Amino acid sequence: MATIIVQRPKLAWHERWFISTLLKGLKITVGHGIKTFLQIAGRKPKVTMEYPEQKWDDHLPDHYRGAPTLVTDEHDRERCVSCQLCEFICPPKAIKIIPGEIPSDDPWAKVEKRPKEFEIDMIRCIYCGMCEEVCPEQAIFLRKDYAITGLSRKEMVHNKKRLYEIGGQRVGLVNKWNELK
User: Fold this and answer.
1) Is 18 a domain residue?
2) 0.70 exceeded by the pTM?
3) Which terminus of the chain has fewer CB atoms gathered within 10 Å of its CB, N or C?
């Protein structure tokens, strides 16, 4: 096999010292600075938001998908039937459900099961909304919350109790509690 020798081009003095590259970068930076100055002088609104004091809550679009949560119906009953569809469809596997049975003496024993444990790892969650779309009982919803914080990984795993606290109530027909079904 023949060896191919490639000749490197000779660089000019300004290319060797990166002067032309530096000047191109300075041109872009100064251009942005001038545009910003003209915006301030013309009293145009700022683009930058001061995050802790100012939030996007008022400016969020209707289709915004935030963190998932569990909701109850208007009678404070669990909507979730532990079908585990959300767990199976979740791309990052952030949802973990352990089904539990409803006692036979309960008036709603026909439902068969409810979640014994329900956990969502908010660190893993990618807010794709697939869990909300696949839920047959409309038990899981994505709320418009983007500031989810915690001091440890353990705090970022929301259990069933925490998810119901955050989620609240949703009014509407739920197949699980439909007496005709």
Assistant:
1) no
2) no
3) N
- Domain with 145, as residue range(s), is 58-177
- With respect to residue 20, please indicate whether it lies within any of the assigned structural domains: no
Q: How far apart are alpha carbons 96 and 163 in whole angstroms? A: 13
59 is in an annotated binding site: no
Ramachandran angles phi, psi of 164, nearest 5°: -70, -35
Any known ligand binding at 35?
no
Q: Is 111 among the domain residues?
A: yes
Instruction: Give, in order, the Cα–Cα distances in Å from 180 to each of 74, 82, 174, 176, 177.
Output: 18, 21, 12, 10, 9
Residue 13 lies in a domain: no
115 known ligand binder: no
* pLDDT tens-place string over residues 60-116: 888 888 889 999 888 888 888 899 999 999 999 999 999 998 877 877 666 678 899
